[in-house]
Every structure is written in C-alpha cells, then in structure tokens.
Amino acid sequence: MAAPKKGRNASAQSRPGRSLALILIAIVALTGGMFASGHTTPRLGIDLAGGTSITLRAVPEAGQEGAINKTNMDTAVDIMNRRVNGLGVTEAEVQTQGNSNIIVNIPKGTNSKEAQKQVGTTAKLYFRPVIATEVSGGAAASPSPSASSSASDKATDKEKATDKASSSPSATSTPSASSTTQGRPVTDGLKADASPSASSSASASPSASGGASGDDSKLQAAYAALDCTDKKARAKAGDGAKPSDSTVACGQNSQGQWQKYILGPAEVDGTDVDKAQAVFNTQTGAGWTVTMDFTNAGSKKFANITGKLAQNQSPQNQFAIVLDGEVVSDPYVRQALTGGNAEISGNFTQESAQSLANMLSYGALPLTFKEDSVTTVTAALGGEQLKAGLIAGAIGLALVVIYLVVYYRGLSLIAVASLLVSAALTYVIMALLGPTIGFALNLPAVCGAIVAIGITADSFIVYFERVRDEIREGRSLRPAVERAWPRARRTILVSDFVSFLAAAVLFVVTVGKVQGFAFTLGLTTLLDVVVVFFFTKPLLTLLARRKFFANGHSWSGLDPKRLGAQPPLRRTRRPSPSAAGPVDPKEA
Question: Residue 431 is part of which domain span?
C-alpha cells in the first residue's frame, strides 16, 4: 500500500507545470474578456473621478418600522434613479447599502445642489382628475360634444381597470379604465389632502374642475406654452403647485410620445393605497394587471372621484396617477368604483405592471430619507488623490521588493513573480467588476490594495521560512520544498482566513466608502490563496530542480552554510541486521 502512495506523490510533484499552465490560462482568459468588454481600466469612484456622493438613511414613522424592507428600499432606488436621470445625469449610481441606507453617486458636471434636493426629498403620489390632455405639439385629446358617451369604446388598445370583485368574464357592467401610459418609471407617493372633485363639464378650461384654485388664465397660458419634449420644461411643469391646486403636468404614453395635461386638485393621495401588486389574470384573459386595495378612507375618496368622473366624456373621465409632478398612468372610468379596490388591465407587460404596482405600493409607505453625509470632490482633487494613492502603493511595493532581494536573494525572484501575477489578476478582475456589478475603485479601495501587498508577501515569507527550516535540519532542497509545504499551507490558510473574515465583517457592518476598503481586502486575500497554491509553490518546485537552487548557491537564498545547517547535510540509512550478518551477543 505504501508504494502506490509514494508513486502518486512523486507524480504530483513532477508535474507542477499543470498548475502554472492553469493559472496562466486563467490570466489570459480574463485579460481577453477585459479587452472584449471594452473596459480596460477599473471604474473610478466619485472620490477619484470627481463628483458628489450622498448617503441617505431611511427613517420610518412611529409604529411603521416594518416599512423598511428590501422590496421598498429597492423601489426607493428606482425612484431616485428616475430623479437623477431627470437631471440629465449619465453614469450615476444609486444603490442600497445595509438595510436602511442608500448611496447616490453623481459624477462631475452635475449641479450638486439640485441633485441633493432631488434625491433627498420624499416622493409625492397623487390621483388627480384630468381636465385636458394632448400630445405635446399635437391636437387636443378632448372630444367634441357629440362624441360617444362611452369613451372606452374608442380606446380598445389601451389598458383597462375594473373592480377586482367584478372582474369575471360574465361581469358585463364592470367599470373599465384605460391607461395611455405603460412601463413608466417606478415611483412612490406620500401624503396629500383630498380636494374638490372634477366637474362633468367637457370644457378643457381649468374651471371645469369646479374647486380648482389659482388663476385660470395663467393655467391656460402655462398649458399652451408647455413643451413636454423639452427635459427642462418637464422638470419645471407644475412647480409650486399644492395638492389643492389645479396644475399642469407631463407624461409619456405607450407609444413613447410626451403628452401634456391640465389636472384638477388631488382627490386621493399615495397613503390611501393599502396594497398594490402585479397579477397575471387568467380568468378574463387580460394578461398582466395591476390590482389596488385602498384604505377605508381611501375607498371613500376613490369611490367619490370615480363616480364623478364617470359622468364626463373623455378625457375628463380619466384620473391621472401623478408622481413627483409627472403623470405615470391616466386610466378612465365608466362608473363609480365602490368596492375599495380596482384592477388596471390591458397592454401591460410583466415589467411595466410590476413597475406601476411598486410605485403605488411605495406611495402608501410612511418612509422618509435623511442625509447622513454629502461629499463633493472636484476632478482635480480626485486626480491628486489617485496619484498619491498610486505613489504610496509603488513605494510600498518597492520596499517589499528591496527587503525580499536583500534577505532572500534568489528566492526573491519567485516572490516578485508571484506579486506580479497577483497584481495582474487584481487589476483585470477589478476592471471586469466595474461593468458587471458596478464596482468602483475609490480611495479606501486603493488603500486596501496597498495593504494586500503586505498580506501577499507574508504568505511567501511563511513558505520560504519553512523551507529554510527544513534545510537547517540537514535536508536537501527538493525534499525540503515538499516537507515544508503542508505546514506552510496550514499557516497561510489560517492567516488568510482571519484576514478575509475581518474584511467580510467590515463590509457587512459598515456603509459608505469603507466598504470599498473591505471589498478590495477580501478580494486580494482570496487571490493570495490562488497565487500561492497555483503559482508560488509549483514555481518553487520547478526551480528546486535547478542546480543554482538545488546546490545551495550563495546567492540562491538557500545556502546551507549561511542558514547554519547541522551536518550531515544528507542522512545515510543504517544497514539492516540481516544485511550486516549475525550480531555477536557480546557486542550486543
């Protein structure tokens, strides 16, 4: 049994080239992927590239602590993405950190004060009656007085909404609705007071809302001048309007066209929605739908407004779901929806239905966000920080290399080659992580990479010292390399495990830029294990067969005399009793 085991060990030791080939193939493949992706440099964080970083913390109202959960935080991220994009920002980052924090990174070239204002406020969701609407730059959507009283008959290609309780195929009197918008940005809504309802008049005048406040002529003028194809005009539409005021707004329809609206005072607000979800309706064949459940107060408000809107002609039988001043959906109704719930159906895809459902659900949550920190870095300062970090890394690497050369001499070649392989893997992986998971190299991450130089060098030193200990005990190099490996391997794994555990804990319990340090430290620790196992050890095994190292040249770093090896350098096997002949009892 012993012989085959020895043979297997010898075979494993004689083919270290396989491990070297494997890691070199991995480097080539990753490098090829990097060039193929077009991202040949790591993505830089705000503190290095310049820009504004805002840390927001979700704060629930009393008794609503459960409102802070993953679903709602993800929806908040979608809302803030929508706001940042509304500013015309490119390559902005909005992501959650921890359970209750959102980090917004906005690159240079953006008005930081405006961005801070946009993302730091809580979104407002209202249900407002539609007084008039038209495609921006096109003809008004209001019908003539002789139009059919059933506006839904002219909109068979639009989404429809019904009471959930009467959504079966046999429900012939089910109130329906149509939404001219589909797949709009997911958003949230907050508190507002119910206001006077829309009148049944078909006039497109603001006075049609009956209780509308403000100057009608100013509202008409604002509506006539509004160009929703202009991003700046969309952002300013309805600025300063209160929930009790009539206002103008913009929204995008299912054909991708921008429409402008005159809207009456808010009748229902986001907190009146108890629950909303996307459901695939198989009973009526409607496909993906959005169902809404209202609170007790919201049910009365919704029944009141839909009952009044149902008396009007299109578009004044529609209500607009308005988020942050933008219309995200504008269903129409044919009769009052009194069941305390509703179902919007029609041409929804799963994604667009889920988006609208999330927006409505989030509008019912009492979440606000408070700023924990706002950091603004100019591009010049970021470049200086990056330069300083690279210089610090170069100095640290140079000091490590000098130490290795002076103390380990020839062995330093193995250590330096291993450091280069580790650096190449780290660079390529960081470059690939930018487009794949959004990883951005910030200044703390650079510090983590610098610290990793010492951790990686420490692994080489542990192995080299084990090998030198074996030589001090009188063994030749090749057996010393193999005997030293098991003990060195255990030490390296324990050391790297402690470093990785520290990085993991730091990543979980911290927020902000410190996570960049923890992520880089953890990544480089894992790469250290890969490099030591698949490059350093096989390379030392190969070089141990060379005379320069095997004979203990004075510049190899493995000279037995310099190491203080105890003779004999090579032990001889004592002859067995059978080979030496009979032993004289007197001598025994």
Answer: 12-45+378-563
